[in-house]
Amino acid sequence: RTIGDRIGEAKASGNLGNTLKILGQFDEAVVCCQRHLDISQEQGDKVGEARALYNIGNVYHAKGKHLSWNMAQDPGYLPQEVKETLQKASEYYERNLSLVKELGDRAAQGRAYGNLGNTQYLLGNFSEAIAFHKERLAIAKEFGDKAAERRAYSNLGNAHIFLGRFDISAEYYKKTLQLARQLKDQAVEAQACYSLGNTYTLLQDYERAIEYHLKHLVIAQELGDR
Questions:
Q1: String of DSSP letters for 35-56
Q2: Where are the membrane-spanning stretches (predicted)?
Q3: Phi/psi at 70 (nearest 5 deg)?
């Protein structure tokens, strides 16, 4: 501020916002991220503007998750305050998405689609969540980003469960499992086996359910995860 560096001030405000978000001070975080947004717009800095929109989305997303943790409910059955917070997150991610499309930033589009999928899932809009996660998946494949691809499969599996499409969920969870093994991520592998066990229980294929739950158990024991 002393040297009149507006872009520097914008970036510093954004960093403050992100730090306050991690500290759980969501309302103060929004104020700082908003300053990042305002200055970026005033300076015609499109990249800064996109980043600020994404960060504000993240703050509302984190706040919504934080508020809903205190109530162990299924996605979609949310108190008004939580719903409004997640809707705000969604709005900012949408604005970020249209801007990064304009900028032609595919990686940033991928991140926006993933977060839109997650917020819509929490809001109980499962069909919308699926559409966003499919976009996320396509971009992850484009970049050969196996970790993001794995997350997309997992999220697609979760959303299909709530639509009662258990067979489709099982297919997505199998892809999740395959990638978890490729990535040598045992914790995620165990999680995928657990999801498959539950999905086959819902499909009333109990033999297979047992098979996957046993795999989950073996990895949990290996990891010493009580």
A1: HHHHHHHHTT-HHHHHHHHHHH
A2: none
A3: -70, -10
* 103 neighbors 50 (Cβ within 8 angstroms): yes
Regarding whether 139 and 150 lie in a shared domain, the answer is no
**What are the tokens at 55?**
């960060």
Question: For the segment 11-45, what is each residue's pLDDT rounded down to a tens digit?
Answer: 999 999 999 999 999 999 999 999 999 999 999 99
Q: Are residues 139 and 168 in the same domain?
A: no
Residue with tokens 């499409």: 165
- CA distances to 94, 126, 134, 160, 217 from 156, in Å: 20, 9, 8, 6, 24
Measure the CA–CA gap between 12 and 195, rounded to whole angstroms: 42
Tell whether pTM > 0.70: yes
Q: Does residue 186 sit in the same domain as residue 214? A: yes
CATH assignment of the domain containing 1: 1.25.40.10
Boundaries of domain holding 210 = 146-225
74 and 7 inside one domain: yes
Q: Which two tokens stand for residue 67?
A: 């508020």
At 58-75, the pLDDT tens digits run 999 999 999 988 776 677
Chain centroid to CA 32: 22
**128 & 214 share domain:** no
